[in-house]
Amino acid sequence: MRSIMPADRLHLLLPFALPAAADASTALHDIRCPALDKLIARATLVERVVGEDFQRTLPHERWVARQFGALPDGATSAADEAPLAPYMLRADGGEPGNATWACIQPVHVRIAHDHLVLIDPASLELSDEEASALLAVARPLVEELGVRIEAPKPARWYLSSDAFGTLAGASPLRASGRNIEIWLPHEAHSGERSRAWMKLQNEVQMAWFEHPVNEAREARGLPAVNSIWLHAQGAAQPVRSPFAQVLSDAAATRGLALSAGVATGAPPTSFGALTAARRDATSGDHAGTAHAANTASNDNVRGNSGGNVGTRLGAHAGSPGTGATLVELDPFSAPYIEQDWARWNQAFAALQTDWFEPALAALQSGELAELGLTLCGDTGSVTLTVTRGDLRKFWRRRVLASLFIE
Q1: In the predicted model, what is the mean pLDDT of the chain?
Q2: Residue 94 domain-assigned?
Q3: Residue 387 belongs to what domain range?
């Protein structure tokens, strides 16, 4: 069947899909991805953001913030800004209003030989029941310090306090696996540590020490939840979306889409699942259009026009099919952070089958008008676009290795 998504555009955002140049030979040792190779070879380079080694935020966070206009005025593409907490709060079911919010996550900090190391929060496997019990102990401590707390989901909280000022924290995945010393929250303008934050953190750490939840976790061989991590502080502002539809599991991306008033949902498992969902939605629109036309016709026969039929049917013109769909896929984060390049390669192999091959075929057949790719590492990102016409530009010979961030 043809006509899956004629004249439609798809953009794939791929966090941690771009290894640093130092890791390239190890990461790409066994990789086989001919469809992606062809897409990259023929694509047009839209943007390359190098970033810096000690930026607190991650490239994909900065990219979505820029796309939706959530950065402060004057911020450049490489600015170390991603004030996403208020949008995350909205995605989790809260309402940020005009307040400044910081996202707080329960974490495990491991004692190394002579320093402390943050563990990827996702690896904690923290259940909602465990998180709720820990939150119940921490909430009164937070409120006693005059800090406002919202926690629509127990494993991710949001704090608002004037005492935090311009406190800047690093994304958990930016600091994971590293000595936390340089990544701890500090005042953005002075670089000084925040006494208000350190007091709150210490109170929570002491309350959780030997908590029954942690004792039970350690008995099962799981790491204790022994600290909290602050990041993404900022205030919500009006945003706009360059996409008609956003499909992502990331709270920040979903929250930005909700704030911009566009359709959002979970990412599909494959390009085929995406096109099937689009086909079903289109069928539903056609059925609704036919029903509206039939109703209007009957109204006219009865002498009750109820408005122009064309105007009524025009309500369907703004459906998601008229613009680009952003799909954020994140199978790479955990293996990248853990430097597990075999599993990272397996993720690439799965995307080759599920996304790159069918997307390339759709471009070749004209069913897809344009494919955008934003591949991110831990410091920089590269954005490419490719059209059916680009595929005929055989003289373009870009290779994946050329995209690596030094």
Answers
A1: 85
A2: no
A3: 1-78+238-406
